[in-house]
Here is the input.
Amino acid sequence: MRVLFMSTPVSTHFAPSIPLGWALRAAGHEVLVAGQPDIIGTAHGAGLNTAVVGEYFDALEPLTSGLPEGKRPIEVGHTRVKDGHWEAVNKIWLIHCRYMVSQYLALAREWKPDLIVADPLEFSALIVGGMLGIPTVNRRWGVDPAGFPGQEMARRTMGTMLGRLGLDGLPRPAMVLDPCPPSLQVPEAPPSQGMRYIPFNGTGTLPDWAKDKPRGRQRVCVTFGRLTAALNGLPLFRAVAEAAGELDDVETVLTLEPEFQAALGPVPPSVRVVDPAPLNLFLDTCDAVVHHGGASSTLTAAAFGLPQLVLPGITDTFVVADRVEAVGAGRKLDEARTQNDPAQIRDALRAVLDSPSYAEGAARLREEMATMATPAQLVPVLEELAG
Here is the structure.
């Protein structure tokens, strides 16, 4: 069986496909990842073959252009998508599809896949599958309030283009795979087939410090990712470091790219600033995670059964924070004034570490994830779907 993976040009949108790609390869199937250069490095880092389609896209450019100097997106007050209205966010993927679909179609005609797997916002995959009669599977990346509204928006607005391509409308996926545990997913998400999230946060080396957890102290991992730092986020890092430094019995590991470490400045003695390393290498030494609401951070923390403190900053990360708090697996601070106040961060972190209810909520989430079908167990399902 030949399986073509497609993805919007955002590495975090593609990454949850990687374990499924491994499972298909291990079962003897051919896998090809087609995408713009933005995701090619992520695929190569996971050992998957690729085909480059198109040019660099930089989907995050709208977030960085026009951002006032020294201000994070949350501080300019327009980053939370309210009441499920995702039109402004998803419009970029409608435009993207119009430019990319012919290139993906040419590749699919040449490579002749039996099955297509893509994230929900890569509308080209559904179009290519519909035109060529190839079953197309959507694979969510985690808590997903945007994918299904995006597809409905495409159905409302792309009729003329789809008609020119010989389609009555945007085809629907033959199956939706979801690595997010059902209790954590937004309630309005359409039905899906669960697929256990397998933590993979890139390749790396087990850090020496991971083996040296001080006895009698809890360890907190703070991981906001490069994007948060790049979006004027170093003051947030400093506020969290100051807050964590006030907790006498806690060691804090704060991951930060080397290019930003000098600008971060001094931190309390109990805070260790380290280069990023794959979370799945060391979260088993931690007691809680502080993060920005990214899909990988959220689901990896959940897979390790760790309570979470979520400080969101852009679009769907606010929804992730809502859901983590709703299932009792952690707390959120989702306003600029609370994120800028070390005292409030300290109190929230203390509660996450000390409250049995958060530990219990995180344990429930981990157990729920463990019951979900593994990517390997879903390979026969995909084989049958592809005929």
Residues 158 and 381 are 31 Å apart (CA to CA). The first helix runs from residue 11 to 14. DSSP finds 16 helices and 13 strands in the chain. The first strand starts at residue 2 and ends at 6.
